[in-house]
């Protein structure tokens, strides 16, 4: 991966000490604060801040605090905290601020799944209207994100004088409040009258990669009543024990989570990424089932529970992005629900979720968005929803269900992904144009690169291809899904040939 400062709707990411320094982090935070100042209309600005715990993140944490305070903000520092935890706490302070006249937003110091040397800053807005579930904080829509980037690049920041300089305080209740929010959501949504019974009879292995998810994962599993927990990557060293992206390759290494599930005879394994907004799942045999299943399982649990409490699921809306498996559409259709596709990026998904008042959404990278908890991808929500499907006190209806059996009952597809290095995001344009021309006879969606849904030939209605530039890495992504791995790779081989001319 080339070293570059990535600026996108997801915030900014760079390599600590080279493309992202304390100075540039302070300027980015100040640019964010300047946008907040315009929106706050004279109110005191409060920014809830957290970091993903990777070694070196303190540098950017303190730099961001300086940038925010220098622009007149009051900073509430959560310390090491999951991205969804920052969102939950931003909601908490937003609700308080509504009555006290404060304007509240959030910021996360994270590079998500990027390698150890990377770090970044992600902005959260709490004033984006829409949705009827009590949560609000989310990644900014493109127009707001672009304004932050513009001010950062042009140096358009407004610093406060001594009389209006900001302040900083700490709040270490974030993980606990996040867990309480998940438990409340399960009970309030009719999953169970007592969320503490969900984990009874279940054993769980979890890998938190020595990062922000450690405390919250253990608190949640204990609160759900899980009887045995094997917790890997639970140190506070900030050094990832393996490459942090929760992929099959990284979790299947000797001594890793897949081995841990088998050796401990766990019912399920959960793998978080460093900021714990994504979750990959391992079945009881130690098999990696793929991040694409995480959202499908979450959607199934939410729609099952909605139906159990007597709600009509016909017409309910699920929102996901163009790169996510069609399994979500199959699961939704079985409940009479519909799926809306958006451009890739959490902010794009959430913007439509709020407009549609969707009960669930997310992305196929293991990211479940359950708005009863937060409008941010949330590994804790995904864990709770998956365990409910397996639990005798939940979807098992008196019997413990094996995860492999639940997966077996779902429609099966093969999704294959490839990457091509780019010097600049714009360099993907010729490839996208070539794919669009070659597949002009199929159904095309060009809201984010180009997605090709096959409507002719033997794979009609069964396969798709998506080619786009990444928002967070200097790469172009090629993703294909089909009934078999062979078919998916054949689509990618053809795409590669078309791109190379």
Largest sheet: 7 strands, mixed
Number of strands: 20
Q: Indicate the mean pLDDT.
A: 94
Number of helices: 15
Describe this structure in words.
By secondary structure, this protein is of the alpha/beta class. It has four domains: 6-172, Alpha-D-Glucose-1,6-Bisphosphate, subunit A, domain 3 (Alpha-D-Glucose-1,6-Bisphosphate, Chain A, domain 3, 3-Layer(aba) Sandwich), CATH 3.40.120.10; 178-282, 3-Layer(aba) Sandwich (Alpha-D-Glucose-1,6-Bisphosphate, Chain A, domain 3); 292-380 and 398-408, Alpha-D-Glucose-1,6-Bisphosphate, subunit A, domain 3 (Alpha-D-Glucose-1,6-Bisphosphate, Chain A, domain 3), CATH 3.40.120.10; 414-500, Alpha-D-phosphohexomutase, C-terminal domain (TATA-Binding Protein). Helix content is 36%, strand content 22%. The chain has 15 helices and 20 strands. The two termini are 24 Å apart.
